[in-house]
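PROTEIN–LIGAND DATA SHEET

This sheet pairs a single protein chain with one bound small molecule, flavin-adenine dinucleotide, given as SMILES. Inputs appear in the order they were entered. The predicted three-dimensional arrangement of chain and ligand is reported afterwards as a token string under its own label.
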Amino acid sequence: MSDHDVIIIGAGSVGSPTAFFLAEAGKKVLVIESLKGAGQGQNKAAIGGTRATHSDPAKIQICLASLDVFSNWKEKTGTDIGWKKGGYCFPVYRENEQTILKGILPIQKRAGLTIDWVEPERVKEVVPGINPEGLLGGTYSPHDGQVSPLMASESFYVEAKKLGAEFKYNETVTGLVMDGNSIKAVKTDKGEYTADIVLNAAGGKATAICKMAGVEIPVIPDSHEAGISAPVEPFLDPLVVDLRPGPDGKTANFYFGQNHEGQIIFCYTPSELFKGENRMCTSEFMPVIARRLVTLIPRFKNLTIRRLWRGLYPMTPDGVAVVGKAPGVDNFYLGIGMCGQGFMMGPGVAQNLASLIINGKPVLDDDVFALLSPERGFYSGKKEALK
Ligand SMILES: Cc1cc2nc3c(=O)[nH]c(=O)nc-3n(C[C@H](O)[C@H](O)[C@H](O)COP(=O)(O)OP(=O)(O)OC[C@H]3O[C@@H](n4cnc5c(N)ncnc54)[C@H](O)[C@@H]3O)c2cc1C
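PREDICTION REPORTED AS:
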């Protein structure tokens, strides 16, 4: 007899909502987390963008499910998680981005996303003050939004706990005890626990946990910097993504939004990725992103910046998450490799993992879910268009 139905390793963007959905379905869940609380890993580094605007049908449908959870959470539980339905806008100034974005619209619409190409006048309405020079238009997906990652993870934890899930903080998984092709026990620095099923939701440490069960899955962290301003009067509804590389030579795309408290929150993708786990802030981030922000929206020159930080994207070689049953181990499941979208994918991934564990079937259609399969070829060179 096992102590628990499911042990989840990691109380992050994926682990905490999965604990909630499993507990809601009556499962006896134990979550083991190295840090002092839920969402204290890379979850809290996220700027809280929650969009179903992707180019891959699996991500689109997972994130549509997440948006459903986030947008109805307050009604369901009574808890505010900072949900703001402002949409996502990708303004376009070059034919290159226009061709890419228009090219993926049919895939996005087929997968159920509400999105359209809009003319420059509409972009200027949804992004007040945007630089009009050379603006060709853009895409706008009005049902996307933003959520506070810390408020959400705390609430998933509280609600899961009410349903009987147990959380052990400040405790680190150090080994998996194997019995042939099954995990017999989970060893930590404080004890040993048994469960019928073990779920790896360990974010940037996922590869090390996989290795404990003899499974090889490449999740390689790289680090990204972000910042937040003091609050200003609400004026910006959508999160805005500028896909152009910067003239600085340092940046690929950059993105920003105004959160539910009025703060402008922003981030860029460096043109050369910082591989590894170094989370020290750099001196170049703020001057580089300030120039990009002010060039795109000149009124940003008045912002006061409050805080900067750096966190990790748990990356896979093809930029797509790994969700499903681990190959070769009977009772081991994976919700890992979330790349730069783990917060927005969390609840949708959680619902699919809960359904897979309980019913043997994901919520998504099998052919769509297969795009996230741990058994796919990781080095096919496939790259998503939208990061
Ligand atoms: C600057 C920045 C901005 C971002 N913005 C967004 C955004 O707007 N929207 C979005 O969707 N995503 C965003 N992301 C990405 C997002 O933060 C990650 O994809 C997501 O948090 C990963 O979720 P996870 O559950 O896999 O990992 P985590 O949230 O890190 O959770 C994994 C947990 O496992 C625990 N753990 C690891 N090893 C062990 C062990 N051996 N024993 C016990 N516990 C263990 C860790 O402590 C951690 O808490 C951003 C990331 C960065 C850095």
